[in-house]
Design goal:
The longest helix is centred in the N-terminal third of the chain and has 4 residues, at about 20. The protein is globular, with a radius of gyration of 22 Å. By secondary structure, it is an all-beta fold. The chain has one helix at about 20, and strands at about 35-45, 50, 55, 60-70, 80-95, 100-115, 120-140, 145-165, 170-185, 190-210, 215-235, 240-260, 265-280, 285-300, 305-315, 320-330. It contains 1 helix and 16 strands. The strands form 2 sheets. A 14-stranded antiparallel β-barrel has the order 1-4-5-6-7-8-9-10-11-12-13-14-15-16.
Length: about 325
């Protein structure tokens, strides 16, 4: 639902995927709930100059498979425990020089409970273990040298969320996320005695209104900050040894709508605006704005034990990126 509604999920009903997105929404679940997801992302034009007289326009294909489970602790207590895991692999094409690769796994745990009459709170924990490798070229004005970098990192993120309602048509939510991690970098297979260190901070707030029994709208605003220090690199890169980095902030505004066509079918649509301000490995500043449109369809047969949903989104950022997600949900 997050992708369907342009990323606006704060007021959306809870699901096992809330272990990732909004742990405070887990309290709305009354039965043991499971979700299996398949996500496919296609990116184009993400490459840049790879070396002297050579350029790459890299495209990428990402596959993500996830399983999430929510377990209510007792009847009508509002206390819910949830777990989840997903694994992803990124395949890069049209990159004979840099030859990038990427893969990893994420593990989640969350707990939610009531906070007064019309409020709930939730805490979520995520552990990420990923590995990326790519080649890079450096031209010093005389000769061209090629290096291969492999990055292995382990990251933790803590999320605290609060959600409330007026008991009728209006729902609101706020949350904060704090993360940290470290890893090793290898240049041409050699550890340069430089530990990668990273930090992540995000704050988010959102609201939802029920316009009618069949229609609701939601909007969110999110700010993120990331700071990655990649550790030492060879002295021939960057005119002497040093520590490469990637840091910056992202601001996102999201809006979405959901309308029920019948008891079994509902349609969703959304829009997301993203503004990126980044300083990269080479100390260059970059600012990009992206626009994303999304749509989705949810099918739920009679009863409340099974549902199937599909959503897709398209992003404009100087080129086109398309992603789609298929989710199977079962309740017991």
């Amino acid at each position: 639902r997050a992708a369907i509604l342009g990323g606006a999920y704060m007021g959306a009903e809870g699901s096992p995927a809330s272990v990732i997105l909004n742990p405070a929404a887990l309290s709305s679940l009354k039965k043991t709930d499971t979700m299996l997801t398949f996500t496919q992302n296609n990116y184009k034009g993400i490459g840049g100059a790879a070396g002297k007289d050579k350029n790459e326009a890299i495209s990428a294909h990402l596959m993500d498979t996830g399983l999430y489970v929510a377990l209510p602790l007792g009847k009508k207590t509002g206390r819910v425990l949830a777990f989840g895991a997903d694994t992803f692999n990124t395949t890069f094409n049209d990159a004979p020089i840099t030859e990038p690769k990427g893969s990893g796994s994420r593990f989640y745990a969350a707990y939610s409970a009531p906070l007064g009459k019309n409020m709930t709170w939730g805490y979520g924990l995520m552990y990420l273990d990923d590995t990326y490798a790519w080649g890079t070229g450096w031209y010093d004005g005389v000769s061209f040298s090629r290096y291969h970098m492999k990055n292995q990192s382990q990251n933790w993120r803590h999320r605290l969320a609060v959600q409330g309602t007026d008991g009728g048509k209006f729902t609101w939510g706020i949350q904060g996320t704090f993360g940290y991690g470290e890893g090793n970098n290898y240049w041409n297979g050699i550890d340069r005695d430089g530990k990668e260190k990273n930090a992540f901070t995000a704050f988010r707030g959102g609201t939802q209104w029920k316009l009618s029994p069949k229609t609701r709208v939601a909007c969110d605003l999110e700010w993120q900050w990331i700071d990655i220090q990649f550790g030492n690199h060879p002295a021939s890169i960057g005119h002497g040894g040093g520590s490469a980095y990637y840091k910056g902030d992202t601001l996102r505004a999201m809006a979405g709508l959901e309308h029920s066509l019948s008891d079994s079918f509902s349609l969703q649509g959304g829009y997301r605006f993203s503004s990126f301000k980044i300083k990269d490995l080479c100390g260059r500043n970059a600012q990009h704005d992206a626009n994303t449109l999304s749509m989705g369809l949810n099918w739920k047969p009679k009863g409340d034990s099974f549902s199937l949903s599909w959503n897709g989104e398209y992003t404009w950022l100087g080129y086109g990126d398309f992603s789609q997600n298929l989710a199977l949900r079962c309740r017991f």
